[in-house]
Prior knowledge:
This protein is mainly α. The protein has three helices and no strands. It has two domains: 1-41; 43-80, no CATH class. The longest helix is centred in the first third of the chain and has 39 residues, at 2-40. The radius of gyration is 28 Å and the shape is rod-shaped. The mean pLDDT is 83.
Amino acid sequence: MMDMMNNGNVAWMMSGMWLMCGLFWLLIIAGAVLLVRWLARRPGQVKTSLDDSPAEILKRRYANGDIDRETFEKMKQDLS
């Protein structure tokens, strides 16, 4: 009877080890994906929303220094 109990404990212990191993690798992969995304982001990159209007995007680009005043004015006239 003791032998059956020990085999049951070993099975539970092995299941727990598989679960922990899977969780470990899941965290490693998620961390690698986040690291690559963070490293791939350009320093001056600004996230834009799909709800932003073209005029808002243009103003943001001018404020960030991506375009000069002359280009800003010309593009603003083109949008009007």
